[in-house]
Amino acid sequence: MATFLHRVAHWAFRRRRTVVLVWVAVLAAVFLGAVNSSEAPEDSASLPGIESQQAFDLLDERFPGTEADGAEARVVFVAADGQQVTSTANRSAVDTLVDEVADGPQVAGATSPFDAHAVSEDASTAYATITYRTTADDLTEASKEALTEAVERARDAGLTVEVGGSALETEPAQGIGEVLGILVAAVVLLITFGSLAAAGLPLLTAVLGVGISLATITALGSALGFSSTVGELAMMLGLAVGIDYSLFVVSRYREERAKGHQAQEAAALAVGTAGSAVVFAGLTVVIALLGLSVVGVPTLTKMGVGSAGTVLVGVLIALTAVPALLGFWPDAVLPRRDREGPRRTRGRRPGRFGRNRNSSGNSNGKGTTPAGTARTPWGVRWARFVTRRPVAVLLLTVVGLGALAVPSLNLRMGMPGAESKPTTTTERRAYDALADGFGPGFNGPLTVVVDVKGADDPAAAVTGVSDRLAGTGGIVSVSPPHFNAAKDTAVVSAVPSTGPASERTQDLVRTIRDERPAIESATGAEFQVTGTTALNIDVGRKMQDALVPYLAVVVGLAFLLLMVVFRSILVPVKAALGFLLSVGAALGAIVTVFQEGHGAGFFGVEETGPIMSTMPVFLVGIVFGLAMDYQVFLVSRIREAHIHGEQPGQAVVTGFRHSAQVVGAAALIMMAVFGGFMTGGESMVKMVGFGLASAVFFDAFVVRMAFVPAVLALLGKRAWWLPGRLDRLLPRVDVEGEALTRRAPVPNNASGDDDRRESVTV
Prior knowledge:
Blueprint: H1 2-14, H2 16-35, H3 51-62, E1 72-78, H4 88-102, E2 107-111, E3 125-132, H5 141-156, E4 160-165, H6 177-193, H7 196-219, H8 221-224, H9 228-258, H10 263-290, H11 298-328, H12 336-339, H13 378-388, H14 390-405, E5 413-414, H15 426-438, E6 446-451, H16 458-470, E7 475-478, E8 482-483, E9 489-496, H17 503-514, H18 516-523, E10 526-530, H19 532-566, H20 570-595, E11 611-612, H21 615-643, H22 648-676, H23 683-715, H24 724-729
Parallel strand pairs: 5-11
Antiparallel strand pairs: 1-3, 1-4, 2-3, 6-9, 6-10, 7-9, 8-9
């Protein structure tokens, strides 16, 4: 692997104009494809294999012409203090709105609150239901404007009018996530490298990769069903991994230049070593993303495929575009003192990312820094501290992360609704008004679809089901049944006494389903329960059932990959255990903030509640891939030092000397990119950004910086043990670039020119 990538980088450096032109041409081609492509499809809510989805499918089949997920507007009217909506003036304003909206071309029906008994007991609140023949995404601007203008006229009449439902759903406020992430990344890179060119190159290549990936996703959106959500996740991951992968190659290039290598050979060595780690780190991310298909949720599968493609583009750019760009400006990325004249000989003291050392990785071979030299890097000092006290550090790490993970045991899963929106939105105000006027359960009614095709008396069968539902504890009201044209299917709405996010409501759904065999036997009708609460229960159960096989597939494949990379059994086991600690702590942090509300105000979370059902699986997949990034980059440098003859403890110190600062910078960049998405107004996006940022923090700064060196120090040489038979079976990929060490001596008069005189024994 290292030898092949070394040759690729040599070619990219020599043919830099060709490489750059090819990438620019690819960007132009996919951009043209995106411009001429069909509009991206809407996010699909289809979840095959669950009862709620089966009920929706039955509604689509038995009620043709009206989509089960068609747009709906629930217009809520609240009278002024001391008044009633049933007064003559208020009633006239309500009826006028309903009559005006009912004439819309896309309107399927408009029900007055006075005809549907949709008035609260104290007559302070009422609501009208407007249904449409199409989904919210397909509503025309004319239909939306007609409803908006009618609402404004009702408000002018003195009523408080708010609109819930999907018809006028407001777009969440857009944050500055991408911009903020790039700005913070630029600052971190500038501090890390001390060079504008070195800081700008990873940013440039990351933006190039994200641009190509987003344009490709848009171009293929119609054919493959990629929605805007796929592009948002791809952008988030593309920026993070794109910057990090280029960062590792550039930092290794600076290190090789500091050793005295000429520009072209330094670029080739950087790609052959750090690039090998990039390849396998990228493969672990791709495995985790493609593994989302195991869950069986089409939306997650598409998000995984689109994001995996973005990661692959980032890897290819790091291996080809980065050495090509280094060929244009071979000295610009170096520290200032190394750019001022020919100071790249072995006798000179190098820049930030390289020092003249012997094989032990120290300045004098004894683990100390001679007087008059630069201060010992913080990574070295920390690694020595950990290797001297591995038991204490290991216990503190495990106990600390375990304590942070404890709240995750109380995890409640659901799907965010209007209750999670800011109070500045009309949907949230409509939600609150309905809860005040009709009770908390009114916002989460249970939709019961009754199939009476096989019943002798369909009307009596539906009545029997309705009566049994009304007699169930926790149900406050049941609506009259609504039959389809064939009279073989009816829809009944049952209102619980508790809110949609309440555990009691979820228990109620389970009770109804548990009693279903007896009800069906007594009435001769079959029924299914759907609606928001039922959907949350079904999705949560589906996610829980899928988590174990998903973990088995992802961790199993990654374990095999890491075993090939590190030629060890215990190192992949350690990587998996460290990942479980970091993801457990991240889930605990999410529950603490978004479910229990501790610190919610600081993060701009206005309403707490259940955690998004797909969040645990999503977090596990993304974080596993990113965690393996740091595992490969850090441990590969440790193993490189070990196979070159260093003792296990000193190999840990050497690995940290070369990679701790870069891994820390990469983690800060990822945290900035993910954390920047918390500036948006959507609660779900905030939750994803917070979860990923906290997981990266725990994994990079706690697990990789403390847990990993402590375990390696305790294991010693046993960490690199591999049974002889397995050693012969596994392919050798040479991530550490061992084959590249068989080199001709580096000329003392190394320059930044084309170094065709150098040769590599392969």
